[in-house]
Automatic annotation (TrEMBL):
Name of this chain's protein: UBR-type domain-containing protein
GO MF term (any one): zinc ion binding
Compositional bias per record (Basic and acidic residues), positions renumbered to this chain: 236-245
Mapped zinc finger ranges (UBR-type): 37-113
CDD domains found in the cross-reference section: PHD_UBR7 (cd15542), UBR-box_UBR7 (cd19677)
Family matches, as InterPro entries: UBR7, UBR7-like_UBR-box, Znf_FYVE_PHD, Znf_RING/FYVE/PHD, Znf_UBR
Gene3D superfamilies attached to this UniProt entry: Zinc/RING finger domain, C3HC4 (zinc finger)
Length: 408
């Protein structure tokens, strides 16, 4: 007799609690560094904060670009409770629009007087509920292909990893930061660093490893000026470091240290395996500190409005760490659940996990009906399901209990 294939997939209580822990970490990343009590308008254009868009108050934002607007965390919780909200994760240099010029029909409960227009705010398609180069909502009701979305550190739009143009989309999930293809073309000088950043990726920025990202050393340093096309020096003008030191010594008073303006932007990588290829680029945490900070490059960053790349407070990692410090040590739901489960004796633990598995199977069967009939699950449906499950459980106990269903 042929043995039927068995479904070996299963979902344990530990898996459920682990997922909850990951959700908590995501929430911490978004909310940890933001103020949930006070509107941030008076603080001006905050370096980074959680931002939301309210489609209940401004439904026109779905289709009209000029109607896009965003609000801070506190206003989302206290002025727009129960509204249809878009969670935009974090945005840089953003000032709250709640009750302001872009939302004249809204009265801000926290800071009613907002007379100045937020002219420096930047509103991408996310404020209309669209994302990526596919310009689709997330989640997309017409596309159920599983994919991870990552945020470009320059335009701050969100992209499906499969749409980044990477040879291996997994790189987009595993890297610390991503710069989309459009932003790489708009800031061509970044291409010069791609080959060197690959070296950083391989070394994982281990503090014990010395990585020469500039191609320069004390014995053969050069001063380089980016070409007019801003793609970096293909044939750089060179000057020995000792010559620049001598010049600085002649021009600088003896009581002040000499300031050398040495451009360390590397030339475009000639190695075809490491050189920039068309599409998005992935970057390892800490890569920004290797960007050249000579006068010429500083002006280049200003011209392209990307000076924030030199600001450590701009990174999401800094924002997350700030939130963790503000909230202090936290015990995750995963840790709490496992601690609670370990307090019971073995028989109780088995009973608990058995009931969990019963609920899991029944819930999956319940939801499969809606999938098959293409119906939307409502809160009333869910409440009815758990009420029925609770009723059956009581009846089973009244009848003397039931044998264990299964436990994995």
């Amino acid at each position: 007799m042929e043995q039927e294939d068995q479904d070996t997939s299963y979902f344990t209580m530990a898996d459920l609690l682990k997922q909850q822990e990951e959700r908590e970490e995501t929430t911490l990343a978004v909310l940890g560094g933001s103020d949930e009590q006070n509107c941030t308008y008076s603080k001006g254009y905050v370096d980074r904060q959680a931002v939301y868009a309210c489609l209940t108050c401004v439904p026109e934002a779905r289709g009209i670009e000029s109607k896009r607007c965003g609000i801070c965390l506190a206003c989302a919780m206290q002025c727009h409770e129960g509204h249809e909200m878009l969670e935009l994760y974090t945005k840089r240099k953003f000032r709250c629009d709640c009750g302001g010029k872009r939302m004249p029909d809204v009265k801000c409960k926290l800071e009613p007087r907002k007379e100045e227009e937020n002219t420096l705010n930047r509103y991408n398609q996310n404020f209309s509920g669209m994302y990526c180069i596919c310009h689709r909502p997330s989640p997309d009701p017409e596309n159920d292909v599983p994919d991870v979305m990552v945020q470009c550190v320059i335009c701050e739009d969100w992209y499906h990893t499969r749409h980044l143009g990477l040879d291996d989309p997994k790189k987009g999930e595993e890297c610390d930061e991503v710069i989309c293809a459009d932003c790489m073309e708009a800031n061509p000088f970044l291409k010069n660093y791609v080959g060197k950043i690959e070296e950083l990726n391989k070394n994982s920025l281990n503090d014990t490893v010395q990585v020469d990202v500039t191609g320069l050393d004390e014995s053969n340093a050069t001063v380089t000026e980016p070409d007019a096309d801003e793609t970096g020096p293909s044939e750089p003008k060179q000057r020995r470091l000792d010559d620049s030191k001598a010049a600085a010594t002649e021009e600088t008073p003896k009581d002040k240290p000499a300031v050398l303006d040495i451009c360390t932007m590397p030339p475009l990588c000639a190695d075809s395996e490491k050189a920039y290829k068309k599409g998005a680029s992935v970057w390892t945490d800490g890569w920004r500190k290797y960007l050249c900070q000579c006068k010429t490059c500083i002006e280049l960053y200003k011209k392209h409005s990307v000076e924030y790349l030199l600001n450590e407070k701009d990174t999401l990692r800094y924002y997350e760490d700030l939130g963790k410090q503000r909230l202090g040590p936290q015990v995750s739901a995963y840790e709490q659940g496992m601690q609670m489960l370990r307090q019971f004796d073995q028989v109780t633990q088995v009973d608990f996990l058995t009931e969990f598995n019963i609920m899991k199977v029944r819930l999956r069967e319940f939801l499969d009906q809606f999938v098959a009939n293409q119906q939307v699950v409502t809160p009333d449906d869910v409440n009815a399901f758990f009420a029925k499950l609770y009723s059956e459980r009581r009846e089973s106990r009244s009848a003397g209990g039931r044998p264990p269903h299964f436990c994995r």
